[in-house]
Amino acid sequence: MTMISVNNPAGRITLEQRRLLAEGLTDAVLVPEVGQYCPPAREGFQVHFTERPIDYMAIGGQLLSDQPERDVITVNVLVMDGDWPNDVRKKVLENILGSLTKVLGVPEPSPTWWVSFQVIEEGSWGSRGSVLSILDLLDSGVFTEEKIKAIKQNITR
After folding, report:
1. Each residue's pLDDT tens digit, 136-155
2. Cα 66 from Cα 102, distance rounded (Å)
3. Sequence-distant (≥ 6) Cβ neighbours of residue 49 within 8 angstroms
4. CA distance 103 to 19
5. Three-state SS annotation for the chain
6. Residue 73 · residue 8 · CB < 8 Å
7. What local confidence, expressed as pLDDT, does residue 157 receive?
8. Dihedrals φ, ψ of 155, to 5°?
9. Phi-psi bin for 61: left (phi > 0), alpha (psi -120 to 50), beta?
10. How, if at all, do strands 73-80 and 126-127 pair?
11. What is the pLDDT of residues 64-102, one digit of tens each?
C-alpha cells in the first residue's frame, strides 16, 4: 500500500504525461518494495496529481508567478513500514526522478524537483475498516521470498 502525491504548477504535466507517470511512478516504488516487477501489486498503489496556480507556489521565498522560468515539482511518497534500508530508499528516489525525466522529456532532473520518502510506522496505516500491517499482505503472492524474509525481520507486531 503506497501513496504517491505529485504537486506541480498548472499546465506543467499534460494528461498523456500523467497517464505515463501514473504507471512509471507506481513501478518506481513497486519493484523495490516487493522485490520484483509484479503488475498485480499495482492495485496497492495510488498516485495523486495536484496542479496549483503559479501564484500558489513559491521557491526561494518568491512566488513562481514572479519567476516563471523555475520548473518546480514535488513528489511525496508514503509507504507502509517494511524493508526500507537506505539503499532501497535511494533506488526509489532515483527511479522517481528517472521516470519524471523520461516522461517529461528533459535531459536531466531539475534541481527544483524534490522527492520525499516517508515510512508510515507499523500500526499507523488504516484500510479495509481497520489498522493494516504489511505483514497482512505478505501472503498475497506479490512479494519475493527474499523481501518477505527482510520485512519479517524488520517488523514485529
Report:
1. 888 888 898 998 898 899 88
2. 28
3. 6, 8, 13, 18, 21
4. 10
5. CEEEEEEEECCCCCHHHHHHHHHHHHHHHHHHHHCCCCHHHHHHEEEEEEEECHHHCEECCEEHHHCCCCCCEEEEEEEECCCCCHHHHHHHHHHHHHHHHHHHCCCCCCCCEEEEEEEECCCCCEECCEECCHHHHHHHCCCCHHHHHHHHHHCCC
6. yes
7. 60
8. -115, 130
9. left
10. unpaired
11. 999 978 899 999 999 999 989 999 999 999 999 999 999
C-alpha cell at 148: 518477505
Instruction: Give strand pairing partners of 52.
Output: 9
Predicted TM-score (pTM) of the model is 0.91
Strand-strand pairing, 62-63 and 130-131: unpaired
- Model confidence at 122: pLDDT above 70: yes
Amino acid type, 107: P
Residue 68 pLDDT: 72
Residues 6+ away with beta carbon under 8 Å from 43: none
| Interatomic CA distance for residues 136 and 43, integer angstroms | 15
